Amino acid sequence: MTKLRLTKSTSESLLYGFLGIIAFIIVWQLACLFTDFGKIFPTPLVSMRAFFLAFVKPIGRYTLLSHIAISLRRVLVGYALSSAAGVLIGLLMGYSKLAYAIIYPIFCIIRPIPGIAWIPLAILWIGIGESTIYFIIFMGGFSQMVMNTMDGAQNLNTELVGVAKVLGAQENQIFSKIVLPSTIPYIFTGLQTSLSTSWMAVLAAEMITAREGAGWLILAGMQTGRIENNVIGMISIGAVGLVLASLLRNLERRLCRWSVRSR
Amino acid sequence: MKAKTKYTIVSIVSLITFILLWELLSQTGLVPTRKLPAPSALLDTFLYKLANKNPDGGTLGTHIATSMQEALLGFFFGIVIGVPLGICMAWFKKFDQFFRPLFDLIKPIPPVGWVPIMITFFGIGIMSKVAVIFIASFIPATINAYSGIKQTKDVHMWVAQTFGAKNKQVLFTVAIPSAAPMIFTGARVALNGSWVSLVAAELIASTKGLGYMIQTARLVGRIDVVFVGVLVIGVFGAIMMSTLSYLERKFVKGGRR
């Protein structure tokens, strides 16, 4: 009985979802045919064809997949660096009150500045190149990592620390057995948000300073008036972002089975 | 109490040391001023930019006003459309089934990715920025309103139904108020995203605004103006965020956590 109901509701939602997509495509097609929209925007069919062509035919210097691979490499390098630095500084500030008192006021100056706003400064400091893009992605995710990790280390269950102290645990044991594990769920929250900002930062950085990558693809589509490249770029960026986020969520579910936050 | 004052003093000393060190590094020429202008020079630039249009054709005030106008307009439309959409998707199943795939398609595309398309459609004026910011705030507003309504406690709804409330009454008197904290979280995420994508959009193509100011200053090599712009962007982002937190504290009663 339950099973029957379940399949019915899934097929129903599939049907409606399908209808939604179809309606969207029809509106797109009609808009292209009958309004000025069609003068600048390609029809769904043209976009689709361009999308599949892009896998084999290079746009600019690379094919679609290479553009994505380049962006992906940039994100992963910048993201890894910012996560590592963010966790270290966050733990330090969350655990030691003195470190918090020293670093936090200075950190407060940097924190509200969006990663993307660093682009002009980064170019003036480092010039145009890979390290500039890494720096921008780094700044994009850094403060979120610090804030989340710090939150985790500060929202510690003080009873656990008390128990450990009574049972004669050393300071470093408390840190590695209690502070670190209970911060991990917060770190994962930070990793999630910082991943999406990093992905956004790489796009902006590539639009402004690079000659390849998914961000460049989108911008070049605009500059050369080939909007279909624009659409292709957006679709692939969305898809890759989605894959990255769900990979991370799976990892979290594996690693933090005990935690309420990951459920 | 005493420990607290001690740490406050440490904080103040730390901040002062940081600024003094920065000033010293720049004044003594250890770090060239064209890479790192001294804080005192930045203050001068800031005061200069308040009244002067060099090098980018607008005073600091006009740039701030333009950026704020774009950000708040886009944010406003994003909330006004996103929140009701999220509520409807959570409350009416058909609605959800129809819009969900479309929404899922748009959701993972970072707002910055929309910048070129919006510029193609609306030109480099204010409309394209408003459109990008609309997307940046519309998505988190919808998602949070949706999950806020979905998290309404069944017990609360049963109570309302037992006392004879109609579907509409349950929605307006139970579900929406209990979703309010989540909706405000959505607004906070939305505002943050708006500010970030605004800066990106202005960097890429515009004729006014803070992002434009720092981009132009970079092109003419005025690093002091870039610094001032970046700091102002940070300060105004922080001001908007704390205004929103203030509103949240004022309007959402209880229900936190």
Total separate domains of chain A: 2
Structural class assignment of chain B: mainly alpha
Number of helices of chain B: 10
Describe the main β-sheet of chain A briefly. none
Largest sheet of chain B: none
Fourth-level CATH superfamily of the largest domain in chain B: MetI-like
Helix-residue proportion of chain B: over 70%
Order of helices and strands of chain A: HHHHHHHHHHH
Distance between the termini of chain B: 28 Å
CATH topology call of the largest domain in chain A: MetI-like fold
The oligomeric status of these chains comes to heterodimer
Mean pLDDT score of chain A:
84
Radius of gyration of chain B: 23 Å
* Whole-number total of structural domains of chain B: 2
Name of the CATH first level of the largest domain in chain A: Mainly Alpha
Describe the structure.
The complex is a heterodimer of chains A (263) and B (257). Chain A folds into two domains: 1-41; 42-255, MetI-like (MetI-like fold, Orthogonal Bundle), CATH 1.10.3720. In chain A, helix 9 runs antiparallel to helix 11. Chain A starts with a helix and ends in an 8-residue tail after the last helix. Chain A has eleven helices and no strands. Chain A has helices spanning 2-34, 37-40, 44-53, 64-95, 97-110, 119-126, 130-154, 158-166, 171-209, 214-223, 227-255. Chain A is globular. By secondary structure, chain A is mostly helical. Helix content of chain A is 81%, strand content 0%. Chain B is mainly α and 257 residues long. Chain B folds into two domains: 1-36; 37-251, MetI-like (MetI-like fold). Helices cover 79% and strands 0% of the residues of chain B. Chain B has ten helices and no strands. In chain B, helix 3 packs antiparallel against helix 8 (167-204). The longest helix of chain B has 38 residues, at 167-204. The model of chain B has no long low-confidence stretch (mean pLDDT 87). The interface between A and B is large, with 61 and 58 residues.
